[in-house]
């Protein structure tokens, strides 16, 4: 059994292209931004500017925040429409050019505390990705009643209680509580390496997702990334431990993107292939390559990959395979 998920994540924009007056600068003042496509609060936006040497950009975000530099990141915690103002200033601090644009931030829904859990052999990582809070104070994360960081946290076999606790913008108490069922499972670095080799071989051969055979343009190899390996392992392990087969976790409701963020990476785009029951890396990769949607992930515009094979006898499919693709 195989399933494929693709999550285009970034909304890209070019705010303006303004020519700087010749008396002050040579060249142009270009402003761009990127943010999650859904634009839901809390929304983090990365702004970038290119400008002539000897100048800099000043930013007013429209919600009282401000910054300076060629690349800045700002989080809008509340929904609304905000006017971004970017100003090009010269070495004497004089305004040379100016650009502005409305930034729409949609409601993320009711405020909530949430959890994302990544199991590993004998340990776990727990984060608050998925929480919606309209203020900058993050939730507290607890394991068995003790406040913890993201991990990895040692985890003995048996049940454990994870909690996220937060205070909403109106002072209300918010909490999410999960029971974790830690149990042994096995991984295989050799299988992960072989999946990587077969995946990159298909890219080098120019595997054609329409004809399902080599013959398209060759693509560069995907590079393994430890954070994506953690996200992939969290997905394979959760499917084995909690008896489901889906991109949405039956344990915590997390998406591939949430798992990657909890592992410590915040990429521009994410995709995930999963499979269950296949006995060898060749069988798993061949199944993905012969499924057009999964094939498009393998042959997609990604540069990084994470991999995880997990086996747990007694679980519904025994063997679970995950590929996580990302582009910074």
TrEMBL record:
Signal among the record's keywords?
yes
Question: PROSITE patterns attached here?
Answer: PKD
Q: Which UniProt keywords apply?
A: Signal
Under the heading InterPro entries, the entry gives: CAP_dom, CAP_sf, Ig-like_fold, PKD/Chitinase_dom, PKD_dom, PKD_dom_sf
Ranges for domain PKD: 58-97
Q: Signal peptide location in the record? A: 1-25
UniProt protein name: PKD domain-containing protein
């Amino acid at each position: 059994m195989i399933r494929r998920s693709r999550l285009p994540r970034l909304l890209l924009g070019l705010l303006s292209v303004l020519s700087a007056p010749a008396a002050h600068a040579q060249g142009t003042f270009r402003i761009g931004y990127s943010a999650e496509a859904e634009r839901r609060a809390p929304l983090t936006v990365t702004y970038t500017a290119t400008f002539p040497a000897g100048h800099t950009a000043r930013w007013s975000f429209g919600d009282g925040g401000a910054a300076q530099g060629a690349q800045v990141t700002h989080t809008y915690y509340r929904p609304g429409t905000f006017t971004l103002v970017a100003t090009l200033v010269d070495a004497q601090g004089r305004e040379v050019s100016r650009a502005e644009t409305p930034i729409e931030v949609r409601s993320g829904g009711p405020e909530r505390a949430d959890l994302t859990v990544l199991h590993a052999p004998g340990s776990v990582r727990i984060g608050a990705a998925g929480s919606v809070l309209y203020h900058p104070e993050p939730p507290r994360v607890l394991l068995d009643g003790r406040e913890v960081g993201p991990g990895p946290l040692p985890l003995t076999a048996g049940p454990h209680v994870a909690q996220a606790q937060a205070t909403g913008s109106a002072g209300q108490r918010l909490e999410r509580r999960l029971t974790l069922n830690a149990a042994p499972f096995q991984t295989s670095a050799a299988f992960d390496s072989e999946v990587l080799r077969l995946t990159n071989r298909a890219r080098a051969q120019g595997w054609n997702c329409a004809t399902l055979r080599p013959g398209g343009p060759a693509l560069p190899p995907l590079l393994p990334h430890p954070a994506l390996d953690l996200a992939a392992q969290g997905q394979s392990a959760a499917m084995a431990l909690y008896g489901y087969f889906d991109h949405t976790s039956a344990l915590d409701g997390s998406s591939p993107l949430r798992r990657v963020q909890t592992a410590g990476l915040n990429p521009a785009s994410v995709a995930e292939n999963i499979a269950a029951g296949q006995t060898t890396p060749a069988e798993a990769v061949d199944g993905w390559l012969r499924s057009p949607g999964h094939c498009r992930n393998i042959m997609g515009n990604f540069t990084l990959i994470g991999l995880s094979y997990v086996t747990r006898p007694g679980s519904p499919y025994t063997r679970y395979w995950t590929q996580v693709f990302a582009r910074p």
